[in-house]
Amino acid sequence: MEAKFSLTSIALGNLRRRRGRYLLLIPGIVLAIYFVATALLFADTMFVSLRERHYNRQGEQDAIVFDCGEAPLEELISRGIFSEYGTAGILGCVLPDGQEQENGFSIARFDEAALALARQEPLEGRLPEKAGEIALERSALARLRSSAGVGDKITLTLLVPDGSGFMEKPIQKSYTLVGILADKQIYLDRWNSATPAYRDYPAGVLSTNEQIEPGGRAVINCYGRYAGNAAAAFERLREFCLENKLVTEHDWPNLEQTRYRLFDAGEGADEDIMITSTFLAIIALVLVCAACLGIVNAFSADLEARRRQIGLLRAVGATQKQIRTIFGREVTLIALCSIPTGLVLAALTVRGITVLLGKSFIFRPNLLIILAIAAAGVICVRLAAAIPLRKAGRIPPMQAIRNVELTRRLKRSRVQSRPLFDVPRHLARRNMTLYRGRQAGITAMLAASIVLLSFAAFGARPILSEAGWDYRWDYVLGKQSRTGDWLMEYELHRPGITEQDRAEAAALAGVKTVVGEKLLQVKILTDKITPYIINSNFWRFDYLSPEPQQDDHPHERQWQLQQFQDYLASKDKYGYRQDYLTVDCCGIDAAVIEKLHPFVSAGRINIDKLNSGEEILVVAPAEYGFVEEKLDDGSTRSYYDYTLDSNTAYSAVHQNDMFRAGDAITVSLLYCNSPEAQEYNEDGSRKLPDDAVRIDRAVTVGALLEPEAGDKYLSDYFPGSFFCQAGDIITTVAGLNSLGFDTPYTILAIALYESPDPAMEEYLETNLGWIAARTAGVELRSYVAMTRESRQIAYGLLIAAGAILLLFFAICASMINNALSARIRAGRREIGTLRAVGASEQVITRSYLWHLLATFSWGTVIGLAMELALCGWMLTQEHIAAGAATLPLWEPLLFVALLFGICLLNVRSKVGAIFKDSIVENIREL
């Protein structure tokens, strides 16, 4: 039976005859497909993980319209704003402590569509089915400080909405707890100062059969998913809100956009996913390029050795297109055989990464993605092979058979006559002259590898140093950041972290110490204000002067003058006869105060007098220097120096002429319990609250503290945002209470006996998270997790860098070995001729050794020069601290030495294989 002759049959025949050499090409193609698949699969995993995390935290709705019961909601569909929507009717605002609305949360009945969009799914139990049943989020139960479980009866104190506010008196109502829901309200409400009920995200679900109390009126929230383009739908939704007067007191549309946006994560765990995913995707793409470069080199080396075959095909009538087709089909067939292996390895890799990274990552194989990966893999391989294929197709027949190109180069080369010459070096110089253009890729790859290795070595020390950072506290419970105001302390008795919370945290297994910090603003009354205190901060005491300290802009001057006039008006309104300095006052545990003795510059620390409120400590550096310098880019850098240096040119130096140890001073607390609202009159002056309370206390300055002592910083001993600036007051928690300045804790810092194992860490985070959820705005920060994650990231970076370097090492070795092997195979006739005139195996090997040395020399010199320049630039630009890293030298030299050794062994092996044949076989070039 006669076989059918075609381009495909030629390609298959080539594969069969040259399968041994193609075994070296297949790993490179598998790697390329593997890295393409890994990049795309991980990109899909990133998208799915971020989306699911967002939906689990905030729901699938794109937007929520608050208090919209009077609006024609059906128009949201007819006007193409929403493709679907549901409603939730808020029936009450729960007061966890019976009186504080700020710490409250709303409960609502959801229709079926709103339940699905909001993803109100129970973690335990079920959703309510009849009146008198309720399902609550875990954080809501924590705020109630309740240990109730599914099936228990709970009694809630409710404020019932009436359409404009709430009914006059709270009511008590009992429900059966039938389900515990995943937390959503704490995530939705994180950046929103919503008032419970009228602009709130409900944290409790009631049955649709539940009725509001007589006289009440449900607050309707609408959950919707955009129809079509999200940006256009949002604009139409804004117009809808404005048309129907669904606006806040500030005339903003009464809605919140909660839709999922891939590159708008913004939260810790989400940022971790984004950073990790982006980093791994970049690595994968870099490796794709490296693998493709390896394919280009391997295929080019193979075609170089097959020039004669190409010439014969062209001589019998094959066109350039047919030549490209034959060899292109060879590569395609190899790629198609390699795709399953690459895909399986990529899927297993991404699956393994998601398991190691935890529940934040979700791997869901998608058939369309898999098919796209397969197509992308073939395209990637074809593109990588396209460069040598185009060059191969343009080779003229006679040039390929007789190697005319080589003959022309020989004619152009100048040969110097010498009576004696070094044969190996002469042969090496000849080869380098003839094949100079083909060395560029190898030189570039070697230089790039050296630069990558140098960066890895250069950054390893700072990365490992950062990973080894030892945090002072293992967990911190903190209230959301407070805003400072020179006028008064707002919401002094707002809900916060309580003594009960502290006691429960201290009682947890594994907890060694719990440090509590209370922070508020007080006023130091004084008859003397000097430049020492005025200039001790960039903005803190601006209200004491009618002139701006820095900016001389007219608007700034006008604002500064108005602020000074408001200060004078506040003195008059609240009865201050002296000037006052508004400073931070921190109450902290006595055990922390005992550690501050090295910072005492005058006086002494007496814990008993601090606890009784007789004495306080004042941060007052004996002197400080102010530095203002111009940078090269034209900007100005300003800072304070508390340890004066004779070599520094200070703009000003100030000595302490404000505070002395033993002085009797008056400390005043001016506060109100209403939320902070910096309101202004029509003339631009500040509105001064009428319900402010003033408490004055006479105290003695027990000791003055320096902000720095040697290499220690005073602020490091405080877990919160107490910055220890000039004029700040420090006392004990007991002393703060004795002064009558009692306020909830702003920070609880928790230290453990030892690093927890996974089970203990889960136990601590669960219980501490429960304590944090009791109060609105309190968050748990785990330095245990941060330390572990930073180490994982650091080790992951180093492992990834090592993997990349290993790959580049392999690609460099492959490129150099393939080039020399192809050259040795193509030069069999020349080697046979040299053998015929007496050249030994040692002479031929040394000629290729000199060639190898020249190749390595250029790549090494260029790589080291680039490495030194880039690393030096990073040091001069302070991207890396001068003492944190050293310029890598021995690492790239070791890299080059190992690579050279491998290539030398390959050269000896290939030359030795040729010398096993006879001279006649070499010359005949079978």
Task: Give an account of the 3D structure.
The protein has 926 residues and is α+β, with helices and mostly antiparallel strands. A 6-stranded mixed barrel has the order 2-3-8-5-7-6. A 6-stranded mixed barrel has the order 13-14-24-16-21-20. A hairpin with a 5-residue loop joins β17 (623-630) and β18 (636-641). α15 runs antiparallel to α26. 36% of the residues are buried.
Class based on secondary structure composition and strand pairing: alpha+beta
Mean pLDDT: 78
How is the quaternary structure best described? single chain
Sum up the overall morphology in one term.
Answer: globular
Uncertain segments are: 265-271
Please work out how many helical segments DSSP would assign. Answer: 27
| Main β sheet profile | 6 strands, mixed, barrel
Helix content: 40-55%
Strand order of the largest sheet: 2-3-8-5-7-6
Radius of gyration (CA) equals 38 Å
Distance between the termini: 30 Å
Beta-strand residue fraction = 15-25%
Would you count the extended β strands for me? 26
